[in-house]
Design goal:
This protein is an alpha+beta fold and about 230 residues long. It contains 7 helices and 8 strands. It has a 6-stranded antiparallel β-sheet, with helices on both faces. A two-stranded antiparallel sheet has the order 1-2. A hairpin with a 4-residue loop joins strand 1 and strand 2. The longest helix is centred in the C-terminal third of the chain and has 30 residues. It is globular and about 50 Å long. The two termini are about 20 Å apart.
């Protein structure tokens, strides 16, 4: 759906029709609270290493993003080049874990339900007003959606950002999709542990009316495929 606003001359944040369903689902997964999750922090660190190796430099920040009324990075790795501070000196409660819907590219990845590789975020005029460009000095973005397997509800994204332009190519899209699957595997474990502790107090996981069977893994297309 087009998001261009002729009044502002910018693109509005895309609609999020699954927001209410997502917010109802997250308490059942143990992800309702805005708090860091160690397993997903560790995954973000591994993703930073893998993407840095792919593009040949060490300038990438990585996130596991759960999107509610705001975006919250339950998994986060930010190098010095992105934040001006070392990862070790960035506390788990840092404001860098929270981002409004109007910033970044994850809300667009979520809306399209497929991977989004942006070699240079400045190549398209639609991104010119995105404040993540100045706040985090982002030049390049690579993200994939996290689609909850049993329900088909999108939860958020896994993404990488860079302060320099990158050519992601097919290898980059395959890599981010693989880490998206790893994140979903970890979310399954987090959910199982959470439900063992809270099962007597929670009703069954809500399944959308349109979902008669568990969702299969989504096959993500990407802008790279169209090039």
């Amino acid at each position: 759906m087009p998001t261009f606003n002729p009044t502002s001359g910018l693109h509005d944040t895309p609609a999020d029709p699954e927001l209410a369903q997502r917010k109802a689902l997250l308490p059942h997964l143990g992800l309702a609270e805005d708090r860091p999750v160690q397993q997903l922090d560790d995954l973000a660190r591994r993703l930073a290493g893998a993407t840095s190796e792919l593009v040949g430099h060490q300038e990438l920040g990585t996130m596991v993003n759960i999107i509610k009324d705001d975006q919250y990075f339950v998994g986060l790795y930010l190098p010095t080049a992105t934040t001006g501070a070392s990862h070790a000196s960035t506390p788990p409660t840092t404001s860098l874990r929270t981002m409004p819907h109007s910033e970044g590219w994850c809300v667009h990845t979520l809306q399209r339900r497929s991977s989004l590789p942006l070699d240079n975020v400045l190549d398209m005029p639609r991104w010119s007003g995105n404040t993540a460009i100045s706040k985090l000095r982002v030049k390049s973005y690579l993200g994939t959606p996290l689609i909850h397997r049993p329900t088909g509800i999108s939860l958020g994204t896994v993404c990488a950002i860079s302060t320099v332009e990158n050519t992601w190519g097919r290898a980059g899209v395959d890599l981010i999709k693989d880490f998206g699957e790893q994140a979903l595997d970890l979310i399954d474990i987090i959910t199982a542990n959470h439900q063992q502790q809270t099962q007597p107090h929670l009703p069954p996981i809500p399944v959308p009316a349109s979902s008669s069977t568990p969702a299969t893994r989504t096959h993500h297309t990407s802008e790279t495929n169209r090039r």
